[in-house]
Amino acid sequence: MGIRFILMVNKQGQTRLAQYYEWLTLEERRALEGEIVRKCLARTEQQCSFVEHRNYKIVYRRYASLFFLVGVDNDENELAILEFIHLLVETMDRHFGNVCELDIMFHLEKAHFMLEEMVMNGCIVETSKSNILSPIQLMDKTS
Amino acid sequence: MNPFSSGTRLRDMIRAIRACKTAAEERAVVRKECAAIRAAINENDPDYRHRNLAKLMFIHMLGYPTHFGQMECLKSIASAGFPEKRIGYLGLMLLLDERQEVLMLVTNSLKQDLNHTNQYIVGLALCALGNICSAEMARDLAPEVERLLQFRDPNIRKKAALCSVRIIKKVPDLAENFINPTAALLKEKHHGVLITGIQLCTDLCKASTEALEFYRKRCLEGLVKTLRDVVNSPYAPEYDIAGITDPFLHIRLLRLLRVLGHGDADASDCMNDILAQVATKTESNKNAGNAILYECVETIMSIEDNGGLRVLAINILGRFLSNRDNNIRYVALNMLMKAIAVDAQAVQRHRATILECVKDSDASIRKRALELVYLLVNENNVKPLTKELTEYLEVSDQEFKGDLTAKICSIVEKFSPEKIWYIDQMLKVLSEAGNFVKDEVWHALVVVISNASDLHGYTVRAFYRALQATAEQESLVRVAVWCIGEYGDMLVNNVGMLNIEEPITVTESDAADVVEVAIKSHNLDLTTKAMAMIALLKLSSRFPSCSERIKDIIVQHKGSLVLELQQRSIEFNSIIAKHHNIRSALVERMPVLDEATFIARRAGSLPAAVSSSSGASLNLPNGVAKPAAAPLMDLLDLSSDDAPAPSSSGGDFLQDLLGVDLSPASVPSGTNQAPKAGTDVLLDLLSIGSSPVQSNPSTPDILSSSLDNKMPIATLDGLSSPPSVPVRSTSAGGAASMMDLLDGFVSNSPKPEDNGSAYPSVVVFESSSLRLTFNFSKAPGSPQTTLIEATFTNLSPNVYTDFIFQAAVPKFLQLHLDPASSNTLPASGTGSVTQTLRVTNSQHGKKSLVMRIRIAYKLNNKDVLEEGQISNFPRGL
To answer: What membrane topology was assigned to this protein in its record (chain B) (predicted)?
Structure first.
């Protein structure tokens, strides 16, 4: 299992989406999110996109006001995770059309559906944007 | 419309939450919303279930408890429609905790959905199962998942593959069922199935060697071909990232090849060509390409040796290391750490660049680089590398200093070529970042200093200078005051000057000054001050001219609010003022600390954590309370008792030596007993278990009392003066010595043990006014526990009221006191008070009982207190 959790956090440090692939209690999650967000948001553009925290490695990327933070195992390929974050953003872009923080908030379940099609149990399932989106589009059509 | 009715839309709720200015407001909104959702759940209203679950997810994401929604998820999953199931499964994955009962409820629904005719519903169930499956569910549902690995739609096959990953992780025994079906997945063309199949294959190889062998034989060539196809594939818009087709698939393939090639020369040979192709042909100007190169390098490093490929890999890392992009440099450092095990020489070539990275502005890079440098250090380069690192220590960030200091100290300790260099480097580190230095590090330094007898003078002068420059670093001050205390005379007289030193003039009062500064500083902690106090005591003997002044400084702390300082102050003052004749012997230089023992203890400090607490209870804090001829060893608490302390950790060892063990457990026992009871009592208490007959006065007691009910009084009297009486006559076994007699009495006579009251009663305490007798019995079946019936008899002509008996025992004993029969003791032996005590001896057979007692009562309304120590218990209790 490579990916341990995926967080989307805005500039103010508020969590906008959280998906964990391992069990943590509510308190642990809150504490972890707080620590990570503080660490990552304090970093400058020039610094590298990886932060080591506890036994995780956090790979993060910023898109406008939204931070995408992915916690991975220590032996995961960090550069590939960066690429994965970009793929996630592009996929959301394709669905929402230039995705923004509000899209994710108001369509939280859809964002989760997309993530579900991309990652299962911490492993990548699918890398083709149209394959990822087809079940979601299907659902939109029928409802 | 009331925004908090159960009909609030998700959007409105989010708006309401976003509009909150404070956390309290937000909590209030969430509380109201949760109440509305609960109400809706109670009404069992299916119309709003979808919306309510969506809201709960949002609330959950904000970090509020949502367990009450769990059953709603199960209901949604059980309903027929796809949209309900969709949100239900999502809720299941997000909201449910690992409480087995609730998960068990969902197993049945999952099973039905895995067999559903609608493939999207099958996909949902697979996804949920893959994310939350427990071991029980894995066993129940593995056959369904196995079947779905061959489902017609690739989108189901890929999910089934990842679901299998979870199943074999939960129940490794199931792995063999999946070996064959997985082999089929590896031949697929669909990228999703391939990438998940490869993941499953990798996990299977890790779970079972059988699988590993199988895939090596059957699938390796196919995998190499797949990788070649992917590398050479024409432009595929759906998977293209920066001109490369599906880098994720590349990476998973390389990862699997790594597992297959590791430890197998043939398999490694088989993949050489394609690895070389990936390493040379991949574009390195985009992140995606670098990700592949990075993975490829790792695979090359892990598989069996092929010189050419390794050179290629190291060159790629060299290019990465000089890249301007911090991300690339970071992964290069990361990878060089792994490469060092394979080819240390090649990594050494990049040493200068790596050292530059230690000074990078980016904390992540610094940390990586520092760890790498640490691995690169050897005997040959330790000096220049340490120099660079200590120089950087001066300018580094505060938050980085901790890591950096720890690493420098470790390097210096490990590779120091000579002691003087070690001391110099440690002095630099302590002056620069002494507050970050761990206790065991400066303890080790003290041990080294103590052992370097030709450097004592040099060291004390160096530390004196450093202390003049800065007195803010805690551990620097500690080592410095220790040195000044020990070697103060060398400081003043410039003893043992080395050629490299510049002579300095320090008067005796200068030396006392710096210690005084330390003791009065507000920034330093108790341990430092306590050490400074000891240093002063030592100086008072070394520098007779300053003795008065030092006494004044010490006396100033007589009223200190800190018990430790107050006690030391009073005790030391008494040593200086009243005990001139022994002072110089008391404060002699510490004996050279044993380096080997220290290192061994440090290394084996793990089990020590358990035993150190019991060790501490046996140690007197600094033991100076005994003015009578206490030898130096006692002063420093160098295991004054026989109780062995070998298992205490390295840190403890030195703390013991320095007498700075401030653990609260040991303080009270030392403070209230030692001065009162005189010299021997405490020592006795400590050594009672180990020495069979330790004090003469008590021996006859035991003898007399234990013989009490068997022998005529005459023999008894005779026995208490052994030389005059033929012992032989009383001893059944014919043993000549008193010891033997005692031993024999307890262990060789089976008769008394049988009838339960094997132990004669003993008068354990007697004063002019009071007698206390103990009757012993053993609880059947528990030899460790002794029941004691205490009988108090009043020998005076007055009545005692408010009679209270208290007892205390050392840690290896447990004491339980029942209430006394009365709190009034009639006069002149006309009545008695009895009280039952239950003592459990955890060291039964090794140590004897011992007890300290205190009896309080009122005599004509005046408080009377009597105290004593009982050590004449019959042996074997």
So the answer is: Peripheral membrane protein
C-alpha B375/C-alpha B343 separation (Å) is 12
**Quick one: which of B676, B699, B674, B672 has its CA closest to B686?**
B674
Rg for chain B, CA atoms, rounded: 39
How sure is the predictor about A6, in pLDDT bands with cuts at 50, 70 and 90? very high
Q: Which amino acid is at B146?
A: E
Q: Which residues contact B341 (CB under 8 A, 6 or more apart)?
A: none
Touching check for B65 and chain A: CB below 8 Å? Answer: yes
Q: How many CA atoms lie within 13 A of B174 on its CB side?
A: 23
Does residue B618 have a pLDDT over 60? Answer: no
- Residues of B numbered 104-133 whose beta carbons fall under 8 angstroms of chain A's beta carbons: which are they? 120, 123, 127, 130-131
pLDDT at B99: 65
Q: Which of B62, B191, B362 sits opposite A48 (nearest CB)?
A: B362
Query: Chain A within 8 Å of B582 (Cβ-Cβ)?
Result: no
d(CA B456, CA B479): 12
ipTM: 0.95
B333-379 confidence digits (pLDDT tens): 989 988 888 888 888 888 888 888 888 888 888 888 998 999 888 88
* Among A9, A55, A56, CA closest to A34: A9
How far A28 CA lies from chain B's nearest CA (Å)? 10
Nearest to B291 among A52, A79, A135 (CB): A79
Determine how many CB atoms are found less than 10 A away from the CB of residue B55. Answer: 27
Q: Which of A96-110, B2-16, B304-318, B546-560 has the lowest mean pLDDT?
A: B2-16
By C-alpha distance, the chain B residue nearest A121 is: B131
HSE-CB at B667 with a 13 A cutoff on CA atoms is 12
| Distance (Å) from the alpha carbon of B248 to chain A's nearest alpha carbon | 7
Query: Across the A/B interface, how many CB contacts are shorter than 8 Å?
Result: 156
Domain boundaries, chain A: 3-142
One of 3.40.50.12780, 1.10.10.60, 3.30.870.10, 3.30.450.60 is the CATH number of A3-142, namely: 3.30.450.60
User: According to the model, what pLDDT value does residue B7 have?
Assistant: 56
The pLDDT of residue B495 is 81
CB contact under 8 A, A78 and B82: no
Taking CB atoms and an 8 Å cutoff, what residues of chain A touch B158? 125-126
pLDDT in tens, B622-632: 433 333 333 33
